[in-house]
Amino acid sequence: MTKVAVLGEPIRTAGYGLAGITLLAATTAEEVRRQWRELPADVGIVLLTPAAAEALGPLDISQVLTVVLPP
């Protein structure tokens, strides 16, 4: 089964853990890029905070569906 993850600042993403979403905490652009490179194989949807989306820049979305959360 495909899992959902949320990537970004812990203060913005912590609540998603209550819904069973995988939390990928990252506070710097480097951490965002590392978490992206190390996405678990079973993750098919990634929610990105605006800061995480900016840190990643244009993505190759052939692997996963991405959604940028509102500011």
TrEMBL record:
Gene3D superfamilies xrefs: ATPase, V1 complex, subunit F (3.40.50.10580)
GO MF term (any one): proton-transporting ATPase activity, rotational mechanism
Superkingdom of the organism of origin: Bacteria
Record protein name field: ATPase
